[in-house]
Amino acid sequence: MKNKWMVLLFLAATGILLSGCSQEAAREPEIYDKSDIVMGTVVTERIYTRGEDASSEIIELLSEIEHRYLSWREEDSDIGKINQQAGKGQAPVDEQTMGYLEQTLQIAEKSQGAFDPTIGELSLLWDVEAENPKVPSEKKINQRLQNRGYEKIRMGSDGGQDWVELEDQCSIDLGAVGKGIGCDETAKFLKEDKQVQGAVIAVGGSILTLGSKPDETSWKVAIRDPRGTQEELLGVLDLEGENYVSTSGDYEKYFMQDGKRYHHILDPSTGYPADTGLISVTVLGENGLVSDGLSTACFVLGMKKGAELLEEYQAEGIFVNEEKQVYVTEGLMENFELAASGYIVFPLSS
Questions:
Q1: Which residues, 6+ apart, have CB-to-CB distance to 248 below 8 Å?
Q2: Are 189 and 65 in contact (CB under 8 A)?
Q3: Where would a tag sit more exposed on the chain, N or C end, judged by fewer CB atoms within 10 A?
Q4: What pLDDT is recorded for position 230?
């Protein structure tokens, strides 16, 4: 600090004027922390910036994305309008919504339906977060299965206006990629602010790291122990720069019935919670939407097919099974450090 002030005094004495940019560059970034609830989940932010605190603006941005584009509960959102128009023809949508749907349907196709944005009615039937949830009847599950299928979504454009058309009784729910989309839009927002040096943002189970810390140390992304408390960690990812990490697990939302765990990650082919022996999947992908969608798809597919899907996307992953074996793809082995006892780490080769 003493040397810094000596340099400034020297420049002033010799008549050398510092530009605004140089003054800003000389300042140490401030740290701004914020936690709030938006998009139906807890959002935590840490931003390193030489400018103003933008954490509240990010919360407002996430709320706008939810209510304007993504929420199936909002009649005026794009997804809400599409669902209301099911079986009645084309629903006009914003270009932004169209982009979300194109990426989402690509994951659905590449995963052969293991990830399906049209299982919202099935999710409502299970209602895992209800006060007294219970396993639905097989008859009701089969009825809801008839109305799902990503192939029932059609998209196009006429005269510059994008549109989406759904078959009757079908509905779209982008909840499985919504948190990742939130990370993507937050990254775009922060990149426009040249005063931001770095940030780490968690939107539920999806995490964005951007830039760097003032001390240049790496980002530490914690992964929860799927069989521990909320505070207990499975391990930590050591990452540099911009990253998008999403985790899906059977511990997030579930209920117990007759000694069996029924979680919220449904297999679109059966209508029941996915049962492939996995209890947690973490994915590091090219953006938030992709990492979020892939973590769900891989959980449903199981480790072998899930790893093949990750390879197709050039993504990395961590698979945890019921035997507490942790399989880490080659690209993440050096970045992952196990923290929980009782687990064993293995490399996952393609």
A1: 205, 265, 280, 281, 295, 296, 298, 299
A2: no
A3: N
A4: 87
Distance CA 290, CA 244 (A): 9
Mean pLDDT of 97-102: 98
Closest CA to 43 of 152, 201, 163: 201
Residues 192, 28, 190, CA angle at the centre, nearest 5°?
15
Q: Is the pLDDT of residue 347 over 60?
A: yes
CATH superfamily of the 73-173 domain: ApbE-like superfamily (1.10.3980.10)
Residue 16 has pLDDT above 70, yes or no: no
User: H-type helices in 66-131, by residue range?
Assistant: 78-84, 95-110, 120-126
CA–CA gap between residue 82 and residue 104 (Å, rounded): 15
Residue 272 has pLDDT above 70, yes or no: yes
The Cα 315–Cα 137 span in angstroms is 38
What is the band of 222 on the pLDDT scale with cuts at 50, 70, 90?
very high
d(CA 116, CA 324): 28
The token pair at 147 is 């109305």
Options 1.20.1050.10, 2.160.10.10, 3.10.520.10, 3.40.1000.70; CATH of 218-350? 3.10.520.10
Query: Coil, strand or helix: which one is 291?
Result: helix
- As a whole number, mean pLDDT of residues 64-83 equals 95
- pTM equals 0.91
Average pLDDT over residues 315-340: 98
The yes-or-no answer to whether 73-173 and 218-350 have a common fold is no
Contacts of 147 (CB under 8 A, 6+ apart): 118, 121, 169, 170, 171
Among residues 288, 55, 38, the alpha carbon closest in space to that of 193 is found at 55
As a whole number of angstroms, the distance between CA 9 and CA 229 comes to 54
**CA 336 to chain centroid:** 19
